[in-house]
Amino acid sequence: MVPISVKGILRGVRGILFLKNPRGELELPGGRPDEGEDLEGALRREIVEECGIKIHATSYMGSSSFQVVPGQRVLIAVFDCGFTAENPVVSNEHFGYEWVDPERERPAVMPHFYWEIIYRLRNVATVAEVVPPDVRRSNHSMPYPLQIGFLDQDRLGITSRIYDASSEKFLGSFLPRKGNILDVGCGHGQMTRWMARESPEAAVLGIDFSRQQIDVARVDAQREEISNVMFSTGDIFELPESAMSNSGFDLINCRFVLLHIQDRFHALTNLLERLNPGGILVTEEPSLASLYSVPPVKAFEEANALIRRFGLLNGINYDCIEEVWDCVHRLNARVFAANFSQPTIWTPELKRIVGLSFRQFQDRLIACGLVTPTDAERISGDLDHEFMQGHVISTGLRTLQLALGRANEESGS
Ligand SMILES: C[S@@+](CC[C@H](N)C(=O)[O-])C[C@H]1O[C@@H](n2cnc3c(N)ncnc32)[C@H](O)[C@@H]1O
């Protein structure tokens, strides 16, 4: 029988991780399963052993048999891996590592079959091709997968009705009366405007890397005649200084943004660094795995599973609570408060969010080969009909709300 080797695709900012083996060739991390070990278990073990990286999610990509050395065929099973960005620490099985950009030439020391694997995956993950050209890509993330600007007004409006009450309750106890407040990845600015209304003497700035989101936020702020709020484009990885004092912020809010970011550790580091002494960072991020409906609706479960797989395929684990909490500890951040929250979605108006969200992902799911156009239409149709029936209720996303400070600092508020 052809032996099996399980290999991991770890996509970093600079490309896919390869290790240098004693033959001087580049190879994907991974190896042979031990007796009785499942493939994912073997992959996790091998990757920790070979490069010290902990995998927190895997998604099966496919398998093929290759002649790895003359006369020896091996069945290579490939998994896309979600991992917390960190530098590999290679074991003495290898002589180093390299991040290989699949858009460039094949490195001379990479066997052809590995290049073929990457090449095939490159054809599968054609996400960038269906992204509108005006959607900016942060250096540390895949392109933002949802619609933006006025096209997403309906869905973000429902999001606000589902989640704002709990977010406001949590955030409310940390709002400074005066000073500088920043809302990062503010979208259409619902929470930004709420903070400005609640703290009329504070200067509130909302930033988002999409100009279209900012356009909507500005229109709404003008309509509501809120004078202490400003909006501008900005990236979580290049945070601004506060306009008033050219320093940091007394409160930074960041909700449903780390969810879309690969390098969450770096993002959280940046957010904490931008705090004034005694300042508070409030984050709220969800896990998509937390969704369920009563009674169970197949299309609801399929839609959720597909979106989670799409994330993993693109290096994003949408079940991000665990990773955010892990980063908080690795950063040694002070935790002033932590709270799990999970709303109920039961009115027809709120239930529409499920179909709206799925439809926004639909083309990308098809382009990635995760679902056929026929199945995507069926799921979409069932979300509009079966899921919308009066006897079906569902949860919204479970989120983890955190109020954080820099290490060894007391809250100034
Ligand atoms: C799901 S929306 C959340 C909007 C808002 N925070 C809320 O809770 O209503 C995520 C927003 O994050 C923005 N975003 C994603 N990556 C970002 C980045 N690297 N820097 C700044 N904004 C980003 C997107 O453009 C989008 O508007």
Automatic annotation (TrEMBL):
Instruction: Please state every residue range assigned to the domain named Nudix hydrolase.
Output: 1-124
Provide one Gene Ontology biological process annotation. methylation
EC numbers on record = 2.1.1.144
Please state what class of enzyme this protein is: transferase
Give the record's keywords alphabetically: Hydrolase, Methyltransferase, Transferase
Q: Does the keyword Methyltransferase apply?
A: yes
Q: Name one GO molecular function term.
A: trans-aconitate 2-methyltransferase activity
PROSITE patterns annotated for this entry? NUDIX, NUDIX_BOX
Q: What is this protein called?
A: Trans-aconitate 2-methyltransferase
What organism is the protein native to? mine drainage metagenome
